[in-house]
Amino acid sequence: MTLIVRRARPDDVEPAGRICYEAFNSIAGAHNFPPDVPNPETGIGLVSMLIGHEGIFDVVAERDGRIVGSNFLDE
């Protein structure tokens, strides 16, 4: 089980967007706040705007060929 951190690609949008939704929804629920990312489609839409944007440095974490995380830095 090797973890690889690499630049994000367009085909990473859906899995990274779903993870974004799950992570933010979980945090909001734990604190009884309304979610910033209310559904998977919103997470996917957000990530699709970030991946490949010239002002954003994007990475994904991949384990065994599956996306398990992502991060985005506004340069």
Q: Descriptors for this entry?
A:
single chain, 75 residues, globular
Structure description:
The protein is an alpha+beta fold and 75 residues long. Helix content is 39%, strand content 29%. It is globular and about 35 Å long.
Helix count equals 2
Shape: globular
Q: What class do helices, strands and sheet pairing give? A: alpha+beta
Amount of helix: 25-40%
Whole-Å distance between the termini?
31 Å
Brief sketch in words of this structure:
Helix content is 39%, strand content 29%. With 75 residues, the protein is α+β, with helices and mostly antiparallel strands.
Write the topology of this structure.
Elements: E1 3-7, H1 13-30, H2 40-50, E2 56-63, E3 66-74
Antiparallel strand pairs: 1-2, 2-3
Helix pairs in contact: 1-2
